[in-house]
């Protein structure tokens, strides 16, 4: 019997996690109310008073915050902020945090009462309710920042880099790097990016993969919105791009960019002359199979002059060692999202890079090769939260000149 019960519980947790957490939340409130009623019927008015004073306010506040979590996730697509098709995992995560706080503070309040009574003291535990309210308000504020505020605060990182392989007498070349757009539907964020990029008046726009969200890879509306996004970007010397993690085949890429002016680089190099400044763009598609991608890099660089200025476009930071061995001048990538959710004083929690947090985001230099890893613009798909915390979306503007 116990084995069957355990199997049933494990099945529910694995296949219906949202329902399990919601059920636990409701049972938490029902349990407190039942405890009060039982104590009254048993004549234990002191215990009933304790549960009523500490348990019921906590339970009611807990329910209100759970409803606010659901309302926030429900509102996101209607406000054109994000368009997740799976809100249960995000709701599950927030309810789990609130449940831990609820039972932790309720247990602490009741324990304080019990210890105080044993010592002949009257312990006031209203502070538990106040603390519970403060903690949950703080958590809600973090959610609002991560889901609503930060995703719209697109930052423009401006860099000026000089290289020996560039012509000193030629005018500087401005490139804008965009990565990890993860478009679901057109939103306020994409409109902001278009205005910012065009205001920079770039010579070249460079794209490094993950153009559609994982939840919308075959969605024709998402693809159409991506094409509309790219069509509004302006760069007189062209827009160049490579495949990222979510574009598994060249065929899927051809379908996505049909009708656009994007030049896709597949294990190849092309030299663009920008007002007398030759810039060799090297594009490598990302498979996340290290041996294959290293071979692709070697293929793309094969036959290039030793003194050519080479700018590598590759989705992730995972080719930095090999790129530096090939004396690549500048390497632009993304993939990490900068962690997307970062902790104060710690930084990125997860980057999905073989190097962990080492190249989470920003400027790096390895053996003479400069690399910039952008935080990107969008979010992970599936059941992952469409949120950014301490990790604003980013476009990168780089002025290139001869040293």
Folded structure, characterized:
With 403 residues, the protein is α/β, with parallel strands linked by helices. It has two domains: 2-150; 156-402, Purple Acid Phosphatase, chain A, domain 2 (4-Layer Sandwich). 44% of the residues lie in helices and 17% in strands. The chain is built from ten helices and 14 strands. The strands form three sheets. The protein has a six-stranded mixed beta sheet with strand order 1-14-2-3-4-5, covered by helices on one side. A six-stranded mixed beta sheet has the order 6-7-8-9-13-12. Helix 10 (320-325) links the parallel strand 8 (310-313) and strand 9 (330-333).
Give a short overview.
The chain has 403 residues and is of the alpha/beta class.
Largest beta sheet: what is the strand line-up?
A: 1-14-2-3-4-5
CATH superfamily of the largest domain: Metallo-dependent phosphatases
Helicity range: 40-55%
Strand residues, percent: 15-25%
Assign the CATH architecture of the largest domain: 4-Layer Sandwich
Count of the domains: 2
User: How many β-strands, per DSSP?
Assistant: 14
Q: Output the number of helix runs.
A: 10
Shape: elongated
Q: Unreliable runs, pLDDT <50, ≥5 residues?
A: 1-15, 34-44
Which structural class is indicated by helix and strand composition?
Answer: alpha/beta
Q: What is the straight-line distance between the termini? A: 77 Å
Computed Rg: 27 Å
Mean pLDDT: 85
In the CATH scheme, the class of the largest domain would be Alpha Beta
Helices and strands, in order, run as HHHHHEEHEHEHEEEHEHEEEEEE
| Main sheet specs | 6 strands, mixed
According to CATH, the fold-level topology of the largest domain is: Purple Acid Phosphatase, chain A, domain 2
């Amino acid at each position: 019997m116990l084995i069957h019960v355990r199997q049933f519980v494990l099945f529910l947790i694995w296949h219906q996690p949202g329902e399990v957490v919601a059920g636990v939340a409701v049972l938490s409130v029902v349990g407190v109310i039942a405890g009060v009623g039982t104590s009254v019927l048993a004549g234990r008015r002191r215990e009933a008073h304790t549960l009523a004073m500490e348990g019921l306010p906590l339970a009611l506040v807990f329910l209100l915050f759970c409803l606010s979590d659901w309302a926030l996730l429900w509102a996101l697509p209607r406000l054109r902020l994000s368009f997740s098709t799976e809100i249960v995992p995000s709701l599950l995560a927030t309810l789990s945090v609130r449940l831990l706080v609820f039972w932790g503070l309720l247990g602490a309040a009741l324990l304080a009462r019990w210890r105080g009574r044993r010592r002949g003291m009257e312990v006031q535990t209203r502070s538990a309710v106040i603390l519970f309210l403060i903690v949950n308000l703080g958590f809600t504020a973090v959610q609002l920042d991560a889901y609503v505020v930060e995703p719209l605060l697109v930052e423009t990182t401006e860099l000026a880099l000089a290289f020996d392989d560039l012509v000193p007498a030629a005018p500087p070349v401005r490139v804008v790097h965009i990565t990890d757009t993860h478009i679901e539907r057109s939103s306020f964020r994409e409109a902001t990016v278009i205005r910012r990029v065009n205001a920079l008046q770039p010579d070249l726009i460079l794209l490094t993969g993950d153009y559609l969200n994982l939840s919308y890879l075959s969605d024709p509306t998402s693809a159409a919105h991506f094409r509309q996004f790219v069509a509004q970007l302006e760069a007189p010397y062209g827009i160049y791009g490579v495949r990222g993690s979510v574009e598994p085949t060249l065929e899927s890429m051809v379908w996505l960019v049909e009708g656009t002016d994007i030049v896709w680089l597949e294990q190849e190099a092309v030299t663009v002359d920008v007002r007398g400044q030759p810039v060799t763009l090297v594009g490598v598609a990302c498979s996340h199979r290290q041996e294959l991608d290293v071979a692709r890099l070697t293929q793309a660089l094969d036959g290039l002059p030793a003194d050519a200025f080479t700018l590598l476009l590759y989705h992730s930071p995972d080719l930095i060692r090999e790129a530096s061995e090939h004396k690549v001048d500048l390497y632009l990538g993304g993939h990490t999202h900068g962690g997307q959710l970062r902790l104060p004083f710690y930084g990125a929690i997860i980057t999905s890079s073989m190097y962990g947090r080492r190249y989470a985001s920003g400027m790096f230099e390895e053996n003479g090769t400069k690399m910039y890893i952008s935080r990107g613009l969008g979010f992970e798909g599936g059941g992952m939260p469409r949120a950014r915390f301490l990790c604003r979306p980013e476009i990168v503007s780089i002025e290139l000149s001869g040293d």
